[in-house]
Amino acid sequence: LDNEVAQLEGDALLDRQVLDLVSRDLSGGVPQIADVAQQLCLSARTLQRRLADGGHSFRSLVDEARRRLATRMLGATAYSLSEVAFMTGFADQSAFTRAFKRWEGQTPRSYRVGTRA
Question: 33-61 in b/e burial notation, b at 16+ Cβ within 10 A?
Answer without folding.
Answer: beebbeeeebeeeebbebbeebebebeeb
